Amino acid sequence: MIRVLIADDEAMMRAGVRAILESDTEIEVVFEAADGHEAIAGAQRHRPDVAVLDIRMPRLDGLAAASEIAATVPATRVVMLTTFGEDEYIERALGGGALGFLLKAADPRELIAGVRVVSEGGAYLSPDIARRVIAPYRDGDRLRSAKAREAIAALTDRERDVLRLLAAGASNAEIGAQLHLVEGTVKGYVSAILVKLEVRNRVEAAVLAHRAGIVTVG
Questions:
Q1: Residues 132-190: tens digit of each pLDDT
Q2: What are the 4-aspartylphosphate sites (modified residues) in this protein (predicted)?
């Protein structure tokens, strides 16, 4: 069972998100919060697997709450669910430790998929967000692309296989199934990849993979 915390200042939105998530029999919403402070307290008390946070909330916004949750409850992985997809929000969310960024206007199935992938240690961006994150690297920065290819060249063949799947949004379990590896071995490969590429998390590794051209966004 995937245990989820929801934070949004609109009660109707919380009810809608709960209904979508709990349509999946393997997801349970364990706490609802109306602002960032409540989200932090709820995460510390209930230790959910995933916290789904709105960005714009009173008293303390979702971006600040995401950073605090990532720092104090690292086992709780954060997904941002927002109406606002401004580049500044995306950068702050991912830099603050969020592993998912979804738009409220997206297909509800994306929310379930994002929570599932992030709960298993993966990273998930709405396709529109992924294209915007990757575009600056895909559309013209040859120097950065060359540096990315050089960094990835230092990986072993198996590490590159893992990175391709990671960058495509696969969870550790899905990577293991495709490469016939146990999940613990996949985690070891992911850790080694982050160290070799000198990146902080899976999202940054995925960006580097896209920048190098070893995987593409559909």
A1: 666 655 555 555 667 778 888 889 999 999 999 988 878 888 899 999 999 899 999 99
A2: 54
Q: Which CATH number fits domain 140-212: 1.10.3080.10, 1.10.10.10, 3.90.930.50, 3.40.50.300?
A: 1.10.10.10
Residue pLDDT, tens place only, 49-68: 999 999 989 889 998 999 99
Distance CA 154, CA 9 (A): 46
Q: Which residue has the tokens 């051209």?
A: 213
Exposure of 46 in the CB half-sphere (CA atoms within 13 A): 21
Please answer whether residues 30 and 115 qualify as being in contact, where contact means their C-beta atoms are separated by less than 8 angstroms. no
- Whole-angstrom CA distances from 125 to 41, 147, 194 are 26, 24, 19
pLDDT the model gives residue 122: 83
Q: Give the distance, in angstroms, between the CA of residue 9 and the centroid of all CA atoms in the same chain.
A: 22
Per-residue confidence (pLDDT) for residue 218, from 0 to 100: 43
Helix (H, G, I), strand (E, B) or coil at 35: coil
2-119 falls under which CATH superfamily?
Response regulator (3.40.50.2300)
